Amino acid sequence: MSSATDPHTLYLHDVPLSEAVASWHAALAAQALLQPLSAERVPLDQALGRVTAEPVWALISAPHYSAAAMDGFAVLAEATRGATETRPVQLKLGVQAFALDTGDPLPPNTNAVIKIEDTHRVDLAEGPAIEILAATPPWRYVRPMGEDMVATELVLPANHCIRPQDLGAVAGCGHTAVTVYRRPRVAILPTGTELVPLGTPPKAGEILEYNSLVLGALAQEAGAQVTRLPIEPDVRESIRSAVLEALASHDLVVVNAGSSAGSEDFTASIVAELGTLCVHGIAIRPGHPVILGVAHGKAIVGIPGYPVSAALTFELIVRPLLYRWQGQLPPELPKIEAVLTRKVFSPLGEDEYLRVMLGRVGDRVVATPRVGGAGVIMSLVKADGIVTIPRFSEGYPAGERVTVELLRPSRTVDHTIVAIGSHDMTLDLLADFLRRRNPLLRLASSHVGSVSGLLALQRDEAHLAGCHLLDEETGEYNLGPVQRMLAAEGIHGRLLGFVERTQGLVLPKGNPKQIERLEDLLREDVVFVNRQRGAGTRVLLDYELQRRGLHPRQIQGYERTEYTHLAVAAAVKSGAADTGLAILAAARSLDLEFIPLFVERYDLVVPDRYYDSPLLQPLLALIRDPSSGFADAVAALGGYGVARMGAVLGKF
After folding, report:
1. Complete DSSP assignment for 505-527
2. Which residues contact 170 (CB under 8 A, 6 or more apart)?
3. Is residue 604 within 8 Å of residue 462, measured between CB atoms?
4. Is a pLDDT exceeding 90 seen at residue 360?
5. Three-class SS of residue 66?
6. Could you tell me what percent of the chain has a pLDDT over 90?
7. Contact, 12 vs 279, CB < 8 A?
8. Rounded distance between C-alpha atoms, residue 634 and residue 219, angstroms
């Protein structure tokens, strides 16, 4: 713990997560900030999801009288003794038997109900009566007083999160309101001169501020009342004033960004000046520069600005406190065992939280790591779970069995089609069409290149792979490489036609450097962006360069790689590159110019073991059904041919 006078303090510690949380909790406990919050009384129609601050005892019994459980006749059971079909007992209506409906109170001196269908009405000289063909025991078809709840009985204990059925029980025993812990009040303060509010078209150097939206939603899920404060620029006194004002009316203040050790990172010094700085820097990845402190009798946290770091650290550190303030333990995520599809490296001194995609392939659940750093929120959006890689482990090898904390319901694993291979924009379109047509099914694609996709099929880690590998010996696409990589290993299947697509040079609007052909890539004023090794586009480029006698090492940017066509287009759009090889649809999506160079086949490779499986049949039916609209939607993207979509082009 420390105070600081230097506005740019360096990390005080780089401690394990458990030690950091323990240090912070100790400081909170010292100021009585770790126990549940104060209580309040709320009407039942506002109590759903709230947590009881004291037990709820029944004020009245339910039912509070003995009630008929059937339509029929109330009788004294002893009066029916000896009744048989041959010697029925007759009971006078209004004297020995009383007609009543379900829920009616039993008349005095009755203790059973005869169902109306088990009686026969007769008229006697003394008046109307019923005949009973069988004796009844006492209290048959009767709800006795207190059957549900008895007055003074415990209905709900303290520290219980109220569910819909609980509301009925509390109301049924006479209450109209319930005493619950008040909701934690959380203020989220986004900081950064580069941030602009949602709805503002961002200029170069500006970033849409949405972390507060994500963090606020996480806090609301944990039962908190959230205030999203306006963006504060990187001005220390402005941030300090905003923090002070927020501390006055909130239980927790979360400062987003400014938690590192740069020249405009002021959070640590502000916390130290206003109170106690417990932790600055935790040995986790993503999310290393976390700040934990106490100020003005309130909890304060500095959360990193990268979206994934912000969400994960809030989940790990802040949400448990919000639940604790409401007398609850945080809900545990369900877990599943899975096998890693590729080797992952991890920094020695940090716990790493690896985002993975899951699917059941064969008799195993496979976990494919998602590509993306702490700034890539889509790595969380598309992740199915989190694998924790502990400190000092250096990572895991491919094939390692790991425990995955699920971010989706476990049933989705068995309904996920795993596609690993080359990237194409139509796969996202296919995933959308499939989900609309079959809400239980999901297509999860991982873009690692054609060669890596075939290797994944070789290792039985995917159901299918997207492939556009040019066979340099024949000039044909896919079948030759697939036969060499799969059939030679004893894996047989089918090559399904999917799309023909146009590859070419993606260029800025107006083509300012007048790039027109591959030969222009060798110019000293041209910066290129490439695809990764093993990608079909990279294979195609290398083939065409060799055919033209062009040396790739003369291309500036040849070693800079991206994993998708859209990423190549984004690099050109941002000005990081003058051109790259990609498909027409990627250029159109970012309003870029395009010079077509080649037409290639992009096919789907499906092993026989999955081709006829119930999991894949809906997907195959979709791409073969002209009435589905999928082929028309693909063609509308531009640069695609769909004539052979779904056709078996070969077996291997």
Report:
1. EEE-TT-TT---SGGGGGSTT--
2. 44, 47, 56, 155, 156, 162, 178
3. no
4. yes
5. coil
6. 85
7. yes
8. 40
